[in-house]
Amino acid sequence: MTNLKKNLSLTLCLLALFLLTAVIAGCGPAKDSSAPADKEASAPSSDKSSGSEPVLKDLLGKGKAVNEMSFDCETQVGEQKMLVKTWIKGKKVRSEMESPEAGGKIINIIDSAAGVVYVYQPEQKVATKMDISLAQQDGSSSPQEDLEAMNPDKMKYLGKDTIDGKKCLVYEITEDNIGSSKVWLWEENGIPLRMEATADGEKMVIEYRNIKVGGIPDSMFELPKGTQIMEFNMPTMPTP
Q1: From CA 46, how far away is CA 152, in angstroms rounded?
Q2: pLDDT at residue 46 in the model
Q3: Are strands 155-163 and 126-131 parallel, antiparallel or unpaired?
Q4: How far, CA to CA in Å, does 175 sit from each of 112, 159, 198?
Q5: How far apart are CA 171 and CA 126, in angstroms?
Q6: Per-residue pLDDT at 66
Q7: Which of 66, 142, 145, 225 has the highest Cβ tally under 10 A?
Q8: Side-chain-side CA neighbours of residue 212 (13 Å)
Q9: What is the pLDDT of residues 108-166, one digit of tens each?
Q10: How far apart are CA 59 and CA 66, in angstroms?
């Protein structure tokens, strides 16, 4: 689960600019993850089903198919936490994060189809417009990114658990030369609700909460009227 560990390590850098490129749906406070409840001997795998359990590949496919949703992503590394609120609709993403370093809330509006990003500071009513290639990622995670990084052939079924009333299938993910991590997949639609890993002696956790699928208005991806827009261009280095 290389992507998970990379994202979690970077999330402590509370940058004024952050970029999210994915989608998904809901969760709440997680139970103690050390031992999933209702552990079973038989395990749904990537190529077969156990009883009424879904085939793992199909379950992951359901999660990847979600392209309109909102969620809160809380990332914790050790004792430090970061919360990012996100809305996604097709190629458009809106994400919000409190950033004391930047003087308050930072809102990013990303239009991948148009190739632009707006970094909006509500207190100043100012937005910086830049090419999407210049946007810097802060390591925040999204369910879609996490699903894309999962290889069903390296996922071992551990059992069942329930998070905020949602039935989950728990898997251990083993990667060569990296170690293992855990993921709680929402049984209804394949969305990961919780992920855990340990790196450099610190436990890292990602939780997706308050997930809602569909029903996002286009206005969520528009700047308020009267916003001052400034263009940002990468400075040109002088020719020697």
Answers
A1: 5
A2: 44
A3: unpaired
A4: 31, 20, 13
A5: 44
A6: 86
A7: 142
A8: 9
A9: 999 989 999 999 999 889 999 999 887 655 444 567 677 777 888 888 999 999 988 88
A10: 12
